Amino acid sequence: MTFPADRMEILERENMKLSASVQEQITKIEEYKATLTGCLQKLTNLTKKVEFMEMGGISYTELDFELLKLEIKEMQTLVEQLRFSINGSSALVESLFEEIHNISIMVNHLESYDKNNVLAVRHEIAALRKRLEDCEKNRVTPTQPSISYVISCYLVVIGTCKHGGLANISKPFVVQLNWLGFSYKFGGWGKDTFPGANQDNHWVAPLQTDGRIMNIVRFYTSYDNLLLYKSPTDKILTKNLPYNQIDYTNCGQGGGMIVYNHTMYYNCYNSRDICKYSVDTNVVERKPLPDASFNNRFSYASSSWQDIDLASDENGLWAIYSTEQNSGNIVISKLNSTSLTVEKTWSTSQYKLGATNAFMVCGVLYATRTLNTRKEEIFYMYDTNTNKEGQLSIILDKMMENVQSLAYNPNDQKLFMFNDAYLITYDLVFKPLLNQA
């Protein structure tokens, strides 16, 4: 048998090709390493900038969003090159790609936040100065002021109902993303709505990603801590059972929770009960809400599992829900905050699934509906003081498409919205009393 020289030659050629290919890949890896090191340094610098900003060193308006987006684009390009160069899938690369995509979305939202809020606040301040000047001029003018003038100058004493109802609403103020992130789109947030309660304290309660279960509530002792996700206190509502089982009995269901006088009220999981959770003692009490539909029978149009929506206003604690007897239309009940008994009930003609959410102000129910992905309309009202209902049209701008919860706080006359994972606030504007017009 002769020596297979031809095969040896082929083997040597293949070996040379393989060596060249390996060297090429090593060169690519070195290039990627250098690029990744540069990106890491950029991210470190950006982190320092943001930390400096959060400590009060620089304002949102000084952030160079264009530079930020350019650097993120560079990282996106790098990851796309990695995806292309690697044969088959890589969980790490795909994870990096998803993270950078989420960062890009966040920067776009922050840029929108800056334009829609910081600049808007400046315009509002200028407009307010102008209104005050106009009011001062009209004060000394003997002519009778117009209705529009009276509304624009009318100020309501916080905590009172000396007004003629809701007249308008401010632009949205985007506070931040909830601490669990984009995936946790459902939930609620706000302050203690009891008259005179400490308004430094804030709570945030994202639901699990199924949009149903509230198993944790986070409390912050100041607005700054809320913004910095700093020094939170977490209240866990689940209980661990033997054999890795979990007890959800004391958990909440849906985004209809409210905090009133150091107590969180919410629809108890898998029931028509209202739970009363003491923030101070962690004790849970519960009582059924008579005839209330539950377990997603009559929720709101844009959020599931919110069959029972708890609310509070200047007059106390309320439940907004539906019953089979009222054909799925909204029912309003005034609750005793201590015993959870129903003090009085009103039945409306508004179908609950025809509204995206609702809130109470001075005993008046206001319901919202979707106009498009960026606008809601406060379109319906029911006044429990007069037993009268009616239509209105107040446009509400929103940052994201779906409204998961609305809660009014009489201590600052703000509306708190949980909007596809984002925490939003609005200022309410009221009409004057008719005898003051």
TrEMBL record:
Domain called Olfactomedin-like: residue spans: 160-432
Protein keywords: Secreted
InterPro entries with a match to the protein in the record: Olfac-like_dom, Olfactomedin-like_domain
Coiled-coil boundaries: none
Domain of life: Eukaryota
Subcellular location: Secreted
Claim: Secreted is one of the keywords in the record: yes
Database matches in PROSITE patterns: OLF
One GO location term (cellular component): extracellular region
Main location, first listed in the record: secreted
Protein name, entry field: Olfactomedin 4
